[in-house]
Amino acid sequence: MELPEKLLKTVKQFSRLPGVGEKTALRQSLIMTKWSKEDLIAFSDAIKSLAELNHCKKCGMFCDDELCKICMDSNRSHSKTICVVESVTDCLAIERSGNFRGKFHILFGVLNPLLGIGPDELKLDHLIERVAEEQIEELILAVNPSVEGDATCAYIKQMLPENVRVDRIGFGIPMGGSLEFVDSLTITKALENRRHL
Question: Which CATH number fits domain 72-192: 3.30.470.20, 3.90.180.10, 3.40.1360.10, 3.50.50.60?
């Protein structure tokens, strides 16, 4: 059965989302046909407003103006610690934990020469300038454990002045995890990141 072009266009756009196949996209689109006209307009306006979303000129987080809410937070402006993360979702995860009250810097990836991602694409010069301008004393590298992540951390450490302390977050066994189900690389990282009791 041939569906109307308007519905097919909606299904096509939904199926561009990660993890959404054609069946799920069709199901979502059909559910939306039951919405009121006002709800559909509000939904489409929210999607359109994503095109006007800015990146914070300091840390890279999404924002409405020049600076994000984290960078505008007066309680954090005097912090001498920056937590460097790969993505916005990593930043949000650390924020949700409520255990870090410093500044953030989002790389939007890791070094990967095979994909053409070098220091310029990650704007690592901007990070180094920021460390100097804000007189940062400590950098926490919260980059995911991978060959590319390790290389990125090593490169950043090499670029920083010696007076800046550089730490990497610990990796290992998750809370409630069982050793028998954990892969060997995770166990290796857990043993490397052990601490004295």
Answer: 3.40.1360.10
